[in-house]
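Two folds, back to back.
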Amino acid sequence: MPQLIDPRKLVDSDKLSAEHLATELNAGSTRVFNLDRLHRGVLKADVDPEEHLFRHSELHRVIFIKQALRDSAYQTERRDRIGTKLYFAFNEANAFEGGKSIFIGDPGFDSALAFQTGFERGDEPSNYIHDRDIISILDSLPSLDPFLMKDRLLAEGIDPDERYFRITAEEFLVVREHVMKKFRPIIEFAFAGLDKTSADAHLRSLVQKLWDAKDMDALKPIVKAMELDAQTAPAAFQSWKGVIYYDYRMDRLAQGIKSFAGWLGQDAVPLDIVPAASRKILDEIRDAIRALLRRRWGGVRERLQDYNSAYEKLFVDQQSPGPFIAFLSDAPDVFAELGDGLSRLDHSVEVWRSVLDRYGNSRLKFEPLHNMLSLLYRILE
């Protein structure tokens, strides 16, 4: 009988078994950016090095993972408490045989990066700054959604090959147009004093400026109408963009969550006969996962309902701007909370699907079921 694992005492990912590690890191979720795998596809396509994500080639061996910061003595100032961990595989040919990981911001981060990849300040200054900027951008996001990564990189003039992102150019434009459509009412509200001809002429330009969130002089009427501080307004607008995107993704994620919840209620029982004590452990882990799933999903839905209510109250019902003004002032925190919650939910669904696909059955024997439930608990907890 395999050793039972208390989900509350799960070890860090770099100490998990190879199967656990492969399942966690290879699932196509928004919590993991498997740059190592994606870059191999870029190399296979013989893409011009100028279109590679990083200029220091060894950085492409890294896998980026979003994870909650717990008991972090060196990142207590982070308001979102979501960190970005870089995973370095021991074996370049097989990233899932084990490796080391370190959070961006750790006092030893630069030394670890230099040791693992050879990337250090002594490199060509422009290349070093370029690559550190990308690392900082990825760290600034609460999740590693392809749309958010690509958008933030493009905003900084960085346009790598599209194979690094699991989103087509067409899909990106669809989301972009959806976000811009949501932006239009705030411009019409803030520039209500303009005549219609002048307002229409400025609308597209101002929507683009709101998307870029850089030209605060042009957006001054919006900043004033929403009672924002000019220094914090760019972060508020960028975060609002992210909240609109997460709201857009909800429908796509909802069906997967529903199927996952249904499986937990019906098929998360061992296919083989196991002792009562082992079955009890499985039941406890499964019930804990169901509770976490309800809490995470409920928290995301509540946040988005509050946002949509505030938006509709101002821009649809034309009532008090107070709730939406309050939302914008809190947008960075809302963005971070939604990113953490949705990426955990997305990751758990993708891990669940990948394991069932691997075994070709919705019912599993005790050992793989126990391993998967332990990992799912760790992701959602």
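---
second:
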Amino acid sequence: MRSKRFDSIRFQILLYSLLSIVLALCVDIAVVGVIYVGVGVVIKQPEEKKQMTLQEYQDVNTSNAKNIPQQTEQIHYEINVPFLSLCLLLSLILGLALFFSFFQMFTKRLIQRVQEISDGIDEITRGNLNKVIAVEGTDEFANIGEKINGMVGEIRLLMENERQYEREKDALITNVAHDLRTPLTTIIGYLDLVRGKKDLDPESRNRYITVAYDGAKRLEKLIEDLFEFTKVGAERFQVHLTAFDFRRFMSQMVEEFYPNFESAQLRCQLDLQLEEPIIEADADLLARGISNLFSNAVKYGKDGKLLKVTARNENNYIVLSIINYGKIIAPEDLEHIFDKFFRGEASRSTETGGSGLGLAIAKKVVLLHYGKITVSSDYHGTVFTISLPRKHQEQGEQMEQQE
């Protein structure tokens, strides 16, 4: 497997530089050498022999011809210094020109990739978040392309979530405005009766006040859901961990909800089989999520007359189950029961008509604790099951590693 070092831009530039230098030197030496040898070397021929007369020739031959050394022709080469200097200057200029030419040829693809990344960034800045920068190899340019593509993907996801949040906010305002009208009309109407009729008997007065009070409570719940949704949509939930006894926590939750169970004529059966009851969690946040499950059980499960709340240890988790025996939830509704604004009932009655955010908020709370929430509904009851890690940070890291 080839090392990433050899795929780096630094190594490629170094390699291209060396190749350019070697090729430039080879071509430069060849060209300048040919020019210099062909033109710059001056060949100096030997001087012509002096013509001798016939008498001198005979005297030489008769006197001592053997003692006269024979003359041989010699060729003399002289270096043209000015032309050599000119060739050296030409060699330097040609070498630099060849180096830059070869280097540009070798790095042409690198320059193209830089231009592609630059053009891609320009297109992204103009608002085209569907632009994908081509990734080639494993060098720094490929890493930059992957980072930019990942960043654009996150921006696109954030913008889509923001648009979804805006759509949900509009739907919430529409739903809440519709639901606010009925209780508000009821409150104003009955309070007007109490204020306008001075001769009302105590029984009628109390009945009118009770109806107005119930309407005010429904109005309060709708407004609370509105604020809850704002926090969920803006991701402003913060988890503040503390270690506490989950058995005592659930006993207190059931006790606080006892008036609601009593008014719905529900008998709550609590079964907490916890050998290890200590858990690290945000008690206030957890209470908010579980109270939404209790409210849902009271609202839709009161016909069953019984509500079971069980808890047990399972490995490093505490498993909480809330079981009601009301109407069975249709399978197609189970798939969307934790969706925002989803309500399974066909009608928007004043008795069960809420904002449809309670279970979505409960799921959000569980997920913030690295837990899991599921639901099932059949003839054995409707069961909401929550699995919460006893050690929040350790379990959260394990789940992140598994993902």
